[in-house]
Specification:
The chain is mostly helical and 167 residues long. The chain has one domain: Ferritin, core subunit, four-helix bundle (Ferritin), CATH 1.20.1260. It has five helices and two strands; from the N terminus they run H-H-H-E-E-H-H. Strand 1 and strand 2 form a beta hairpin. The longest helix has 28 residues.
Length: 167
């Protein structure tokens, strides 16, 4: 059965990365920063739970997107570990640890607001991925980030379709 929530092309999984704490810290931003895969997983899961009460079609789409975002989170965690850091839920801007917080999740009250929030968060993470692709020197990591970014663009399209269809 085809998965309409992710592209069919495989994820290029980096191997043998070696220790690079600077790149690990950069990846932590998309792993668990404010606009990150962890935020997307928790936010979309919350919105999916809310949608189950009102619209099964929206809930099903959000569930599929959440599963793919969880895969992204896992792959990024693997890269962070290979780079010599622990994939804990904290970033390290300016060298100081900043923990992930549920305050990053958008708890909107209407389904329209939730979909718009998911689109905005995904657009922010796409911009963040594109910046990382250009500043991380490792081509294996850049290839993975590019592939993940393609899924995020698909998600934006799916969420926009839902928004246009129902609102």
């Amino acid at each position: 059965m085809a998965n309409v929530f992710q592209l069919s092309s495989p994820y290029p999984m980096p191997t043998g990365l070696g220790c690079n704490r600077r790149d690990a810290c950069r990846l932590l931003e998309v792993y668990c920063g404010q606009a990150s895969e962890l935020t997307l997983v928790t936010q979309v899961a919350f919105h999916q739970t809310e949608a189950m009460q009102n619209n099964a079609s929206i809930a099903q789409t959000l569930q599929g997107i959440c599963r793919v975002d969880l895969q992204h989170l896992t792959m990024l965690g693997s890269c962070i570990r290979q780079l010599g850091a622990r994939p804990t839920y904290r970033t390290c801007p300016n060298g100081e640890p900043v923990p992930w917080t549920p305050r990053f999740v958008n708890y909107r009250s209407s389904m329209r607001d939730m979909l718009e929030a998911d689109i905005r968060t995904k657009e922010r993470i796409v911009r963040r991925y594109n910046r990382l692709i250009h500043c991380i020197g490792n081509t294996q990591i850049s290839a993975l980030l590019n592939r993940i970014c393609e899924d995020e663009l698909l998600h934006i399209s799916l969420l926009t379709e839902l928004l246009n269809c129902y609102f």
